[in-house]
Specification:
2 copies of one chain form a homodimer. Chain A is mainly alpha-helical and about 140 residues long. Chain A has a single domain, classed as Winged helix-like DNA-binding domain superfamily/Winged helix DNA-binding domain (Arc Repressor Mutant, subunit A, Orthogonal Bundle), CATH 1.10.10.10. Chain A contains 8 helices and 2 strands; from the N terminus they run ααααββαααα. Chain A has a two-stranded antiparallel sheet. In chain A, β1 and β2 form a beta hairpin. The C terminus of chain A is likely disordered. Chains A and B meet through α1, α2, α6 and α7 of A and α1, α2, α6 and α7 of B. Chains A, B: This is DNA-binding HxlR family transcriptional regulator. Chains A, B: Keywords: DNA-binding, Transcription, Transcription regulation. Chains A, B: It comes from Paenibacillus favisporus.
Chain lengths: ~140, ~140
Amino acid sequence: MEKKKYNISVEATLEVIGGKWKCVILCHLTHGKKRTSDLRRLMPSITQKMLTQQLRELEDDGIVNRIIYHQVPPKVEYELSEYGWSLQPILDSLCAWGEHHIIKEYGDKFAVLEDNILNNKDIGLATEMDQTAKEEETSLSKN
Amino acid sequence: MEKKKYNISVEATLEVIGGKWKCVILCHLTHGKKRTSDLRRLMPSITQKMLTQQLRELEDDGIVNRIIYHQVPPKVEYELSEYGWSLQPILDSLCAWGEHHIIKEYGDKFAVLEDNILNNKDIGLATEMDQTAKEEETSLSKN
């Protein structure tokens, strides 16, 4: 196997989190564990196949953990691994810069950010709502 | 024109600095102004056409400035704009994480980082050498 060569260390970072989707997935995971159905709802333009592939690559690189709940019906969730959490400051900064950029370009972030729980002003409330939604989902799938 | 919609603000960031090359170009520019020939030397696998396109997009997004020196022969350099410099903490973190990742994967960053002035241990010396190299280049092009 030929040894990798990088001209600058950022190339190694981009090998792990580069591409159109990985940073988006990882930013969503900084808000908590997600099922693939959650991620598809949060990323309507990604295909199931592409999502699965990205998650597998992130898992192979040790960035996310795949948690399998042995229950009926079986449930799988993804979370940032301990190593994945080392990316959190970068992911937070990427989100913050994007918000700043949206405000610069459009004047108002709420005009272009889809109305979803992540973009609520009150993050505490969002997390709480997210939790409630998840509990409802679980309770529904039980019935 | 249909209005943009983002599901999460990081998508706006990736529109500006996403893709295979832009972060690499920008990281190089955090070390100082560069001519396209400098960038091609630092990024041997990028084509001239791709580099030109990436630089134009970064210029259109207000991230880099194109400086034209009206001299014979004419000289063009690229630098981070003031807005581009707002990405510096992110770019530095991406480089630092990559270095950390390389050490984790390979044990020694010097084994996989190409031997160029940017990767020297002594950054002060590197900058000085870069400056000397540039002066030599200028003096050569004058002769």
